[in-house]
């Protein structure tokens, strides 16, 4: 279970109006199911969340409540029903989403289902069998939630996974209310680190492997090398070349103290879409230039293109972050060369407390 970042201050002390995000996509693509699946995680993180749904057909106001129906049939233009805990207002009049939002001023976050053509920041669902490309104005889209391999379009792409979407929303929410996202998540130490156990995480960064069109040839062998070096492998993940997604994953692994060492493979070249060094730099607190020097010395023995490698290494909290190239014939020998020094570094950090 991923650690849940928590805000270090009450949201209403920082922002007076709720953060609003629209969850958009074609009818039937799973918007309601996704919202229902992420609500428990948002609630557990202490974020009071309200939901506004745009219905695709006329509402039936009767539902389980017989009082409002009887009064309306008798001629009442509007009916309010409450029991001291819950309340409901049934009336026939045209209203806007802004009016509905104003009814939830005690909420920190409002998720609006639908509202594809609105100006609200959006998560757009692009799912197989329903759509094959975004339809919303991309200038309003925070991220695409998709099970397809979409070409890069300038916004993050998240898997159709409640955990990934909830984490993305939490980071966006904390940023909007003015909380330092990176510091807020580090305050919640959910993973204890047993004495003497060194933990490693492996992150493969590749559009083609993520899309399922190429095999992940390096990861199994890299996992084996980490295990043989004495690390307990606690996480093996696969991401596309998406800077926001990778930054969030590195932050999760470091701030939760889930891993002492995080090794990324791929996305370190000079392509327009290679962003692993940038994503790592976004979350790194202290640089480890010596690791990069050792990596490029190892690369120089393997390839004439070593000078084009842009890998960086550093520390976040007490976790060492290391970038490796994605090609197995380069990544695996470099990992083998670096592991003795990385293990000694991690042990020294752990011994320092």
UniProtKB/TrEMBL annotation:
SUPFAM superfamilies: Molybdenum cofactor biosynthesis proteins, P-loop containing nucleoside triphosphate hydrolases. Keywords: Molybdenum cofactor biosynthesis. SMART domains: MoCF_biosynth. One of its GO terms (molecular function) is GTP binding. One of its GO terms (biological process) is Mo-molybdopterin cofactor biosynthetic process. The keyword RNA-binding does not apply. Residues 201-345 form the MoaB/Mog domain. Pathway: Cofactor biosynthesis; molybdopterin biosynthesis. This is Molybdopterin-guanine dinucleotide biosynthesis protein MobB.
């Amino acid at each position: 279970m991923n650690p849940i970042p928590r805000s270090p201050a009450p949201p209403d002390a920082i922002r007076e109006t709720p953060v609003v995000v629209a969850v958009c996509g074609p009818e039937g693509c799973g918007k309601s199911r996704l919202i229902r699946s992420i609500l428990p995680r948002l609630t557990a993180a202490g974020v009071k969340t309200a939901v506004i749904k745009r219905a695709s057909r006329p509402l039936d106001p009767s539902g389980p409540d017989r009082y409002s129906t009887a009064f309306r049939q008798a001629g009442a233009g509007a009916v309010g029903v409450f029991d001291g805990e819950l309340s409901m207002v049934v009336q026939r009049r045209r209203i806007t989403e802004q009016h509905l939002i104003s009814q939830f001023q005690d909420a920190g976050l409002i998720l609006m289902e639908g509202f594809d053509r609105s100006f609200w920041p959006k998560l757009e669902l692009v799912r197989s069998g329903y759509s094959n490309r975004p339809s919303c104005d991309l200038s309003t889209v925070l991220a695409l939630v998709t099970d397809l391999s979409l070409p890069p379009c300038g916004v993050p792409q998240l898997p159709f996974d409640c955990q990934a979407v909830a984490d993305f929303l939490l980071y966006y929410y904390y940023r909007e209310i003015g909380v330092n996202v990176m510091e807020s998540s580090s305050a919640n130490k959910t993973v204890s680190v047993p004495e003497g156990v060194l933990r490693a995480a492996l992150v493969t960064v590749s559009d083609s492997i993520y899309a399922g069109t190429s095999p992940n040839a390096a990861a199994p062998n890299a996992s084996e090398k980490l295990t043989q070096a004495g690390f307990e492998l606690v996480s093996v993940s696969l991401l596309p070349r998406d800077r926001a997604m990778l930054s969030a994953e590195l932050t999760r692994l470091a701030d939760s103290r889930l891993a002492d060492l995080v090794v990324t493979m791929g996305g370190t070249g000079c392509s327009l879409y290679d962003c692993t060094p940038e994503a790592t730099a976004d979350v790194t607190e202290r640089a480890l230039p010596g690791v990069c020097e050792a990596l490029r010395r190892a690369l120089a023995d393997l390839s004439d293109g070593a000078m084009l490698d842009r890998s960086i290494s550093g520390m976040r909290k007490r976790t060492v972050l290391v970038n490796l190239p994605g090609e197995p014939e380069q990544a695996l020998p470099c990992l083998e060369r670096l592991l003795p020094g990385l293990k000694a570094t991690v042990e020294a950090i752990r011994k320092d407390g």
